[in-house]
Amino acid sequence: MGNRMDTLYLERFLIVAEQKSFTKAANQLFLSTSTVSKSVVYLEESLGVKLLNRSNQSVELTKCGELLVDRGKELIKELKQLKAELNQLMERPGNTLNIFRVTAFSPSFLAAYRRYSNQYPDDIVQIYTHTPTGVAKALESGIADAGLIVDYDKSWEKQGFQTRVLGQDRYCAVVSMNHPFAERREIVLDDLAGERILALSPNRPEYSEAVSQAHTRLLGLLMEHQANVTTFNSDETLMFQLRAGLGISILGKPAALELYPDMRHIDLVDFDSYTQIFLAWKQCNGNPALTQFLELI
């Protein structure tokens, strides 16, 4: 969907799906039936999937078609919003600073963001949340001026980046407010013996290599301490189980504070992940807004 033409074809497909007819869709679009049909065919070819089952009497969505209908309207809305934001940026007199981030909470970063916004009201700081791979690609390509990362900062310095450590990715237990542990401020691994631990698979795209290694090590230690570990592939399933009070989740505290601000966070004092939260940027980055931002951290 990277260009204007693909977006146009997507819009036409959505109308065909809504009308369940090429003819009715063509009438609504004031186009010929063949033009609408060719638009859908092109869309199918560009995506490499079949979106519609066609017959003389009806048009039926395939499973892929149903998914695209479900996501397509929101995608078009987001693209239009992005275009509007880009147009606004063209009219702004100040500088623009693009920061890509993984899900992590850093008080010093938040404070710098607040001070920058107050001190440079004509500038705009765009924040994008992405996977570690997405953040790395954005930094390499120059789309991002800086990246907020949870990893080993020294490995980034070797790749031609400068880094500034903002905190450490310490782990905590996340529980519902009515959990027996809810009033405690800290726990150790031995306290989790017999407890049901809700965990995500350690090999996930949103994890850096350092976080994956720390998570794998933690799961091993939990099982050694006789905890009952249940691993989920779905974030949503884990979230509902956790909010329902059906177990405990062990997360990096920066992510836990952001994902579950309404739950209890209990420090796990005898496990250190050795990973750091830091800001990384290319040594050759010449954006004056980045220099100003760094001065406020």
Kindly describe this structure.
This protein is of the alpha/beta class and 297 residues long. The chain has three domains: 4-89, Winged helix-like DNA-binding domain superfamily/Winged helix DNA-binding domain (Arc Repressor Mutant, subunit A, Orthogonal Bundle), CATH 1.10.10; 92-167 and 277-295, Periplasmic binding protein-like II (D-Maltodextrin-Binding Protein, domain 2, 3-Layer(aba) Sandwich), CATH 3.40.190.10; 170-274, D-Maltodextrin-Binding Protein, domain 2 (3-Layer(aba) Sandwich). It has helices at residues 4-19, 22-29, 33-47, 63-91, 107-119, 132-141, 153-157, 209-224, 235-243, 253-259, 288-295, and strands spanning 52-54, 59-61, 96-101, 124-129, 146-151, 161-168, 171-175, 186-187, 196-200, 228-232, 248-252, 264-268, 276-282. A six-stranded mixed sheet has the order 8-12-7-11-9-10, sandwiched between helices. Helix 1 crosses helix 2 (22-29), helix 1 (4-19) packs across helix 3 (33-47) and helix 1 crosses helix 4 (63-91). The chain starts with a helix and ends with a helix.
